[in-house]
Amino acid sequence: MLFRPAIAQMTGYTPGEQPKPGTSIIKLNTNENPYPPSPQAVEVLRNVDSEWLRRYPDPYAREFCNAVSEALNVPSDWVIVGNGSDDMLNLLVRACAEGGDRPCVYPTPTYVLYRTLAAMQSAEVVEIPYPEDFKLPVDELVAAKGAITFIASPNSPSGHCVPLEDLRQLASQLSGVLVIDEAYVDFAQYSALALVREFENAIVLRTLSKGYSLAGLRLGFGIANPKLLSGLFKVKDSYNVDAIAQLVGTAAIRDQNYKNLCAQKVKVSRAKLTVDLRKLGFTVRESHGNFVLATPTSSAEEIYLSLKQRGILVRYFNQPGLQDKLRITIGNDEQNQLLIEILETILSD
């Protein structure tokens, strides 16, 4: 047998469709930011010295950590950097989870990569369904005794934020690591970052893929007490973040004004798209991400396929609890308007 039994038996993560660059399509399926990256970040990329390509990068991305420290008011030694926040998730599972005695625990529906990473590590998974109101099931999560408990806030695909008091209650009762995945926090009203100072077992993850329009760069980071980070540094690849990502990411993090302006435009567009979808009969949850979860009155899968035929990609999840729903990334105003017009045509056929 070529692979470990766990790998042979598992189902790999399926990313959203990625058309080739230059393809004439409106891409509203993988929650990319519709606006370009910071001009300061682009300028750094244009002027990269080839010497940065010849040499190995800083294994700890210290200049980037300093930029995070300045932007978020955290000590620079409380920051660990990865090849996207997915890399951070992988580090956490490899460092903390194993078998049935050290399971991965999380409420569902949520980011399905948690399940994939646990399967790779042969760690048991405990999935606890969210209730209809998406109230965090604190007691059930604590009772599951996870080596790692993942909470995405804002959560995808639901778009809801977990109240800080619920996260605080959870952190205070867990014996394992609490991972607060804040990939979409730039579009939300609040962050749980303060909790890492209160609890040594809590880590907050961030990414530059969403708010900073740098999904193609692959750069994310975690913020936690150095006691927690010490174990992660042991399993981190020596040079897990390339030199170009460090340079560009540092410039992007330092341009908070630009990021905030783009995030505000997305939030305004999100509110309008929510209203427009509801006028078409969709049930749309309030969202704190750069997407909405919408339930049509007819087949979600058929609408997804019809949109795809007309050059618009949205996300359809063929899994229990989501089969009647579509997750739609917030595009720019022109893209959102075209989406609504095409949906009107589809629904009237």
Gist of the model:
The chain contains 14 helices and 13 strands. The chain is globular.
Describe the protein in words.
The chain is an alpha/beta fold. The chain has two domains: 22-36 and 257-348, Aspartate Aminotransferase, domain 1; 39-254, 3-Layer(aba) Sandwich (Aspartate Aminotransferase, domain 2). The chain is built from 14 helices and 13 strands. It has helices at residues 5-9, 39-46, 51-54, 62-72, 85-96, 113-120, 138-143, 164-173, 195-198, 226-235, 243-254, 256-279, 300-309, 333-348; strands spanning 26-27, 79-82, 99-108, 123-129, 148-152, 177-181, 202-207, 220-224, 283-284, 291-295, 312-313, 315-316, 326-329. The strands form three sheets. Strands 2-8-7-6-5-3-4 form a seven-stranded mixed sheet, sandwiched between helices. α6 links the parallel β3 (99-108) and β4 (123-129). α2 runs antiparallel to α11, α5 (85-96) crosses α6 (113-120) and α5 packs across α10 (226-235). The protein starts with a helix and ends with a helix. The model has no long low-confidence stretch (mean pLDDT 96).
